[in-house]
Amino acid sequence: MLRITAIIMAAGMSKRMKQDKLQMAINDKPVYEYILETVAAYPFYEKIVVAKDDKILRKAVKLGFLAVRNSKYFLGKSESIKAGLKAAKKTDGFMFFVADQPFLKPETIDKLCRKFHDNPLKIILPFHNGSPQNPVIFPYFLKEQLLALENDQGGKVVIAKNRNIIVKVDILTINEFMDIDTLEDYQNAQKFNILLNPGELS
């Protein structure tokens, strides 16, 4: 069985929201807790959370994650990627999650991981309506390219350099890849959560 390390990046600056979006609540639960709980329940080889906030780091530890503080978060997302990679054990692949996707399903995580097991030297990239999404799985041999990222560069840079080894996985579920960057996104996420859980209105 291949080893896959999950790395959740939760140290963003929420520039478009103008407040800490990860601490905003959906059904009385902070946004970040949804993805932490979903990933915690999956049998990854190793689970890492990279964050700057003490609340997130403490919650990560309670859920069995290796909690890594990113003190250079202000330099851009590359610092979270590098912090997670440097803390990780030797593994076969790195699956990078963002902390503002509360509706990502365990079934989708499993589908992507199974695809990586069949293609251990490929980048596993989910697509929805023709657009690339997160989480992405990178094979271990791309670690140095990921560590070479700078400032606000993300995995897209490495994906662009390695288009010949991309395996696309179509995910058809609606709103699963909804992320929360703006107040409108947050309001839409609250509405979608009510649709998923109509009993909350009673």
Main sheet summary: 5 strands, mixed
Mean pLDDT, as a whole number? 88
Q: Report the portion of residues in β strands.
A: 15-25%
CATH class term: Alpha Beta
CATH architecture assignment: Alpha-Beta Complex
Question: What is the count of distinct domains?
Answer: 1
State the order of secondary-structure elements, H for helix, E for strand.
EEEHEHEHEHEEEHHEH
> What would the CATH topology be?
Spore Coat Polysaccharide Biosynthesis Protein SpsA, Chain A
Q: What would you call the shape?
A: globular
- What distance separates the N and C termini? 45 Å
Any chance you could write out the topology, listing elements then pairs?
Elements (H helix, E strand, L loop, with lengths): L3 E7 L14 E2 L2 E2 H10 L5 E6 L2 H9 L3 E4 L7 H11 L5 E6 L7 H13 L4 E6 L2 E2 L3 E4 L3 H5 L7 H7 L4 E5 L12 H14 L6
Parallel strand pairs: 1-4, 1-6, 4-5, 7-10
Antiparallel strand pairs: 2-3, 6-9, 7-8
Please give a structural write-up.
The chain has 202 residues and is of the alpha/beta class. It has a single domain, classed as Spore Coat Polysaccharide Biosynthesis Protein SpsA, Chain A, CATH 3.90.550.10. The protein is built from seven helices and ten strands. The protein is globular and about 40 Å long.
